[in-house]
Structure formats: structure tokens, C-alpha cells
Amino acid sequence: MGFDPKTKKYPYPKDTSEHYLKIKKNRNIKFDSNYPFVNTKKSFRFLRFLVRIVLVIIVFPYSRLYLGLKIKGKKNLKENKALIKQGVISVSNHIHMWDYISIMKAIKPIKPYTIVWDKNVNGESGNLVRLVGGIPIPNNVGGKIKFFKTINELLNTGHWIHIYAEGSMWEYYYPIRPFKDGAAALAIKMNKPIIPMAFSYREPGWIRRKIFKQPAALTLNIGKPIFKNNELEYTLQKDDLTKRVHDEVCILAGINPEENIYSPYYNNSERIDYYELEEYNINGEKNE
Q: Which regions in the chain score pLDDT beneath 70?
């Protein structure tokens, strides 16, 4: 078992895939068949280029200091460079506002795309989300058809797609929550591997804990590609791949998959309060 922050700072919802962040702005963008899920305009591409420069020069180095970030397993990327160039999907737990920045830092110079909650793009940070590769999930038929066509084209042209299979961001949450099966279904349909990743926690030092009020420092662990099992019937492949990816994310996070408190599969799954709340104060520190 790794370090568990056990913080009570965040209002984790009852449903394990539910969001608790409040989006203050609604720009009323319609993610329909007319929406450019990948914006190819020269002006947008130029802005994305400028943002990339800022990321590499300022944000990536700052993230190491801000998060106490360490990255392990980069050799798995080097050993599979040729495979990655053909297009891959990655999956990780979603435990911090900056965890996608950490993934971008880990896999540079690759410029990934990530599938995101539509409200994040419609909200106050929507432009920035788009500029770092965010692709919103639509909720109408026309938008979904174009969305899946766009994702398929990206994978077929050698791009990297990151998916948060837990469905939402729960800051500094220790257990690996149930996975929705969209990543596995996409990997099977497109015949692409899934690269598992996991954020684990390290006990913070005095300065990080007392001055910056951070429950933990972060380590990003990168695993080896996982492929669908062609020996199984098609109807069984999705559950099999979802479980194997979930198990590997658990292992990378320092958790025995057999001891993780959640099932690998999301089925309207509810939060499990796995430790006594009264033992800890609002900052996740054990009461005397």
C-alpha cells in the first residue's frame, strides 16, 4: 500500500463518476454536427503553438515544483516508440486539476488530445481546455456521430488520446474508482493499445503540508501497452480489457487489485467511505 492522503477537503459525491467542481460560466456552445471537435483554423493552431511554448518553458517546470511531481516508467514509452506513432489510447486515475499537465509533460514532445466533460469547454476555462487538446463529449446524436468520427481519424493518423475512465476528477482520492468501458470499446474498435498510467501519492514534507496545505506529493507511473484479447469472443473483449487496464492502474498506483475497494466496472457505482471520518480533521490530518 502506498501513502493515502485521506483528505476531507473535497466533497466527493455519492456517484463515483459524478463531478463536484462548480462551473460558473456557460458559454452556450452547441457540440453538434457543426462543431469543430478538432479546430484546424490557422489562428487556433497558432494560439496552440504559443500555449505549447508557455507550457514547455514555464508550466512544465513549475508543475514539478507545485505538485512535487516525479515521473516513473518513461522507459515504457521509449521501448514502444514505433507502436505509439501508430496511435494509442492512455487511461489514468483523475486526481488533480493539473494531472493532465503532468501527463503532457511526461510524454513530450507528443502533443496529446484528451476527452473532457462538455461543461469544462463551455465554462470559464473552455478556451484553455481546447488549446491543450480538450475534446468535449457531446450529448446529442449529430454531435456524437461527428465526435466518434473525429476520434477515429485522430487514432488512425497516429495521435495520442487520453481518457479518464473514472469519469470525473476527485482530488487526492486514493482508491481507483470503477472504470467506464468507453476506452476499452474504442481500443477494440480501432485495434489500438491502451497505455495505463496511475498517479500515486507520497507523504508531503513539512513545508508542502503546513505552508501550501497540500495533502500529498504526486508520482506519475507509466505502464506497458495493453492489447485486446483476440482469443475471446467479441462480446467478452470489452469487459476483459476494462478489467486488465483497471488492474494495472491499481498496481501502478501501489494498490493490490484484489484489495481495491471498487469493482473494475462502473455500474452507477457509489462512493465507499473506507475509513472513519471522525478520525480525521478537515485537512485530512489525524486528530490527537
A: 1, 275-288
